[in-house]
Design a protein that fits this description.
heterotrimer, A mainly alpha, B mainly alpha, C alpha/beta, B: mainly alpha, MetI-like fold, 2 strands, C: alpha/beta, D-Maltodextrin-Binding Protein, domain 2, six-stranded mixed β-sheet, 46% helix, globular, membrane (chain C), signal (chain C), Carbohydrate ABC transporter substrate-binding protein (chain C), SBP (chain C)
Chain lengths: 275, 291, 451
């Protein structure tokens, strides 16, 4: 197998690179168009800019979209929500997947429906308003956690399948119980899935627009996803600013992914499925 | 139920998250469905209308087309995303030097917003100046150039391709995580028993990936049926309604001020997805052991 | 187990308490979702020895794209006059409208709402008498011609909206160089118009650019044809259910023109492939001869193709039937002072200030547009806009069917226009669709005229 792979390796490498190139092209377009001026960006081609406008574009976006504040707001909301999601969903999935009584079985279906349930924003907003959860971070954080809960829990429970119950029993026999068992034994084994959950939820909260626009639209509370729409005009838009804004918004998510990628790949080599 | 189970899997670990979910999401959204049955303009309710909102939806001339488009998009993207995601995961799992690059580049589209993607691909698909037609012409395949987004027979496929480009990397990532959990010893043992590459794939890889496959299928089905941002940014439902899907109909109703009708459409979509997922769940679960 | 459980319960309870406290605490100064500094409510009311020293604070909510160069200039001046204004920008289109509706529903009102004008919009958010302050007694109202703009800014005789940005003129814009090279002049009758299209098509250029990707651009032939003196009267009849769209001859004329342009090949080759941006480029670069649009697009031309600005002119598009060609004028968006907010007095003062001739001069000196307020002297207009304005000044500019008098929007006219371009509907079918939707919308509002 190793020999065969070595011979074919070049072929695979080339294939991989070719795929990378094709897939990367549109992303490249976003980046390169953020360097152009208004007329150039409106063309949206892959050509390099005729008029290099990087500094001006990014400076304007930085100023008008109030990037530092937007970064801060988005970070606070996203990080807190992600922590909440990982905490609540891993523990819930643990119980749901392992325990098997009637309540849990019904709950599984409720959560499945919960994944599909659409957010009807106006009644939700009115409800949140009544309990003073609008106009601040907490309403949004709770809503983000609550709306991602079914999906992420589902993802976690899927992976719990791969962790043999025998581990729980072994640890229990050593005297570990309940939350302690979970925190000390199970949670560390979940690292790849934790990384996955972090990336998924981080991404969706970071880029969110539909919820943030209702709860966080005042200038002090604005998040990054909202800033794009400043550069959309009634009839036509300043695409170079839009793209520059998009690049600024996407950078942290990409960085996070590059960092966490390692955890997913390093896998469970010292892992759970030792029998 | 054994005392062991109750001790190890106590409810108090489950309750906080569940409560947050129920209070702050499930309850408001479900109670919002009430508006599907009244005459609501976003501010006031002017009377109970029963099923009238739903009847108005079904009366639309393009009702059949809307359904067709939505389901076409869903099945095409799901099939392609799963197959491509799996193949790419296998490729990325090999110890190639470019593996890390592959993983990063393929996942980048997932992280871009739909607005960016919609804008860029609209430009790529442009019949005169767009990249795609230009590349085809340059490669001597000039006869293959099309009006990708304005040909009513092609438009849904063109949009599906963009969705696949954007999210196949996500499926790949999930499959990859799943592949990582398969211990090498299993493959070694199979090789010793004389299994070839295909055999190993069928009898070790695929079964081990069942839970991931299930998640992937369900997720892609749901996102396919719910798709909105991409279609809206690229065609707005055009040309002349050829790419209308259920979500654009919902958006349309709300935009015209028919909030009750929009909510009814939303409820309808919810029920449809529920049915599709229930069927899928039964299908996949029957073959395996269960969630 | 008991100890552990206790620990966890305490921990969770503590977190909940902290969250609750934080939520309530941070809301004390955040009443209304507008992050105003926490002592704003006190300082506005305290009487001060000289009113100009005390800052007048107010919040404005509106669609983001309205706040451009003109606004920036006024904002700078307003600061010196003691106004402290916080602007909250909304996204375009129905998303922004939804947010406005939600704010109204939860009574989180701004001091000033910047929104569309016209009867349908004034009434669309609830009872205008309850929502908006009556501005009729402010000084600037004397400078507003209520015959032309009454239906845009007033409700039952009370002026509730103050004009913001200029009125828009919609006309047929053309590239003078293309006309020259094709050897044609500005047409004054419909037959001449068809001949002009023909000559341009033979010269290898697109006669009338139709950016079908943005369907709203396809409405203009009808917006021109219904821009007649009696359009407000007809709107009234439609409102009273005394007339149907199917009987609206001027409306049908506009649809017929659009259909003829497409059928005879005088439109774009692949209309749905190109949008508004492409249209601007084509007209500026001379690939297209004519473009039906509103004068606002000249602002983009100034930005993107400054050396081509003088190549573009405007004329009134002739329609079949022999009536004098007209251009359509539409009112701008409006500032509404919301009743009952903390800073209502400041809001009213600001509107007085904004509509004064001095401030209007600042605004229009920095941004193009034709003011609704008469007496504004500083204007920055491109040649095309001047030509359009000349037509209006000559008495041939009118509000069209969408202008301001209709109570309901009727059908989705951009989409219906797209159906004509795509060959999916005939003009008669479009008229029927307009009627169907109009009746539906009236019935939803329990309009007594439509039972």
């Amino acid at each position: 197998m190793r020999k065969m792979l070595k011979n074919n390796r070049l072929g695979w490498e080339i294939l991989a690179l070719a795929i990378c190139l094709v897939v990367f092209l549109p992303t490249f377009m976003v980046i390169v168009n953020s360097f152009k001026d208004v007329a150039g960006a409106a063309d949206m081609s892959i050509s390099l800019p005729k008029a290099w406008n990087i500094v001006d574009n990014y400076k304007t976006v930085y100023r008008e979209a109030n990037i530092p504040r937007a970064y801060w707001n988005t970070s606070v909301v996203t990080v807190l929500s992600v922590i909440g999601v990982v905490l609540f969903c891993s523990t819930s999935a643990y119980v749901i997947q392992r325990r098997d009584d009637r309540f849990i079985r019904v709950l599984r279906y409720v959560l499945l429906a919960g994944m599909i349930l659409p957010l009807t924003i106006i009644p939700t907003f009115i409800l949140f308003h009544k309990v003073h959860l609008t106009g601040n971070y907490w309403g949004v954080i709770l809503l983000y956690i609550a709306s991602s809960y079914p999906f992420i829990t589902y993802v976690y429970s899927g992976f719990f399948d791969g962790i043999s119950k025998e581990i729980d029993e072994a640890a229990a026999m050593d005297g570990a119980k309940g939350a302690g068992l979970f925190l000390r034994v199970i949670f560390p084994l979940l690292m790849p899935i934790n990384a996955t959950a972090v990336i998924i939820s981080f991404m969706s909260f970071w880029n969110d627009f539909g919820t943030a626009i209702y709860f966080l639209s005042s200038p002090k509370l604005q998040t990054l996803g909202l800033t794009i729409y400043f550069f959309f005009g009634v009839h036509s838009s300043d695409w170079n600013y839009v793209f520059a804004d998009l690049v600024l918004i996407s950078l942290p998510v990409i960085l996070l992914y590059v960092l966490l990628q390692r955890y997913i790949v390093s896998g469970l080599t010292s892992g759970a499925v030792k029998s | 139920m054994s005392k062991l189970t109750r001790q190890n899997y106590p409810y108090y670990l489950l309750l906080p998250g569940l409560l947050v979910f129920l209070c702050f999401f499930a309850y408001p959204s479900v109670s919002g469905f009430y508006y599907a049955f009244v005459n609501w303009d976003g501010l006031q309710i002017r009377g109970f209308t029963g099923w009238e909102n739903f009847r108005n939806l079904i009366d639309r001339d393009d009702f059949g087309l809307v359904f067709y488009n939505t389901f076409l998009f869903t099945f095409v993207t799901t099939f392609c995303k799963i197959v491509l995601g799996l193949l790419l995961a296998v490729l990325a799992n090999m110890t190639l030097k470019s593996a890390r690059l592959l993983r990063s580049v393929l996942f980048m589209p997932v992280m871009l917003s739909y607005v960016a993607v919609g804008l860029v691909f609209s430009a790529i698909y442009d019949p005169d100046n767009g990249l795609l037609n230009q590349l085809l012409a340059w490669a001597g395949l000039g006869g293959w150039t099309q009006s990708w987004l304005t040909n009513e027979h092609l438009v849904m496929y063109s949009i599906s391709a963009v969705e696949i480009w954007k999210t196949a990397g996500f499926c790949m990532m999930l499959f990859l995580a799943g592949l990582q959990t398969i211990p090498n010893e299993w493959y070694e043992a199979a090789k010793i028993d004389g299994a070839g590459a295909m055999g190993r794939f069928r009898y070790i890889t695929l079964p081990a990936l069942r839970p991931v496959l299930q998640i992937n299928v369900i997720l892609t089905l749901i996102s396919g049926l719910k798709v909105f941002d991409l279609v809206y940014t690229m065609t707005g439902g055009g040309p002349a309604g050829a790419s209308e899907i259920i979500s654009t109909v919902i958006y349309d109703s709300f935009a015209k001020g028919y909030y009750g009708e929009g909510t009814a459409a939303n409820l309808l979509l919810f029920v449809i997805i529920l049915i599709v997922i229930a069927l899928t769940h039964k299908l996949i679960t029957k073959r395996g052991e269960g969630v | 187990m008991n100890r552990k459980l206790l620990k966890i319960v305490t921990f969770v309870t503590m977190i909940c308490l902290i969250l609750a406290l934080a939520a309530c605490g941070s809301n004390k100064g955040n009443n209304g979702g507008n992050a105003q500094p926490s002592n704003s409510s006190e300082s506005a009311e305290t009487p001060a020895p000289s009113a100009s020293q005390e800052p007048m604070k107010l919040t404005i909510i509106g669609h983001g794209s309205n706040f451009t160069t003109g606004w920036e200039a006024v904002l700078a001046d307003a600061k010196t006059k003691g106004f402290e204004i916080q602007v909250e920008k909304l996204p375009e289109g129905s998303q922004g409208d939804d947010i406005v509706k939600t704010r109204l529903a939860t009574k989180e009102l701004p001091d000033i709402l910047l929104n569309y004008s016209g009867q349908a919009n004034i009434m669309g958010n609830g009872n205008p008498d309850e929502l908006y302050v009556d501005l009729s007694n402010q000084a600037w109202v004397q400078n507003l011609n209520l015959d032309t703009w009454g239906s845009s800014f007033a409700y039952q005789g009370k002026v509730v909206g103050a004009p913001f940005q200029g009125s828009q003129v919609m006309a047929m814009f053309y590239n003078k160089k293309v006309f020259e090279s094709a050897g044609v002049n500005v047409p004054t009758t419909y037959e001449e118009f068809l001949a002009t299209c023909d000559a341009i098509a033979k010269a290898g250029k697109t006669p009338v650019f139709l950016p079908g990707k943005d369907p709203w651009t396809l409405q203009f032939s009808t917006l021109f044809s219904t821009a007649q003196k009696d359009s407000t009267e007809i709107a009234g009849k439609l409102n009273q259910n005394q007339m149907k769209f199917a009987e609206y001859q001027d409306f049908k004329a506009g649809l017929d023109v659009l259909k003829e342009i497409v059928d005879k090949g005088y439109g774009s080759k692949d209309p749905f492939a190109h949008g508004y941006d492409d249209a601007e480029k084509a007209l500026a670069n001379g690939d297209a001869a004519m473009f039906m649009m509103g004068a606002w697009f000249m602002t983009d031309i100034v930005k993107k193709y400054p050396d081509k600005v003088n190549d573009i002119g405007a004329f009134a598009m002739p329609i079949p039937g022999g009536k004098t060609p007209t251009v359509a004028v539409s009112p701008s968006v409006a500032l509404y002072a919301m009743k009952g907010t903390k800073n209502q007095t400041s809001a009213e003062k600001f509107i007085e200030y904004f509509e004064s001739i001095d401030t209007q001069n600042i605004f229009f000196g920095a941004e193009g547009g034709i003011p609704e307020i008469t007496g504004v002297s500083k204007l920055t207009l491109t040649p095309a806009e001047m030509e359009a304005k000349a037509i209006v000044d000559a008495g041939n500019g009118f509000v069209n069917y969408q202008g301001s008098g209709l109570n309901y929007a009727g059908g989705d006219f951009p989409s219906l226009s797209a159906d004509i371009v795509g060959g999916k509907k005939t003009p008669q079918q479009v008229l029927e669709a307009m009627d169907k939707e109009f009746v539906k919308q009236a019935k939803i509002k329990n309009d007594p005229n439509f039972k």
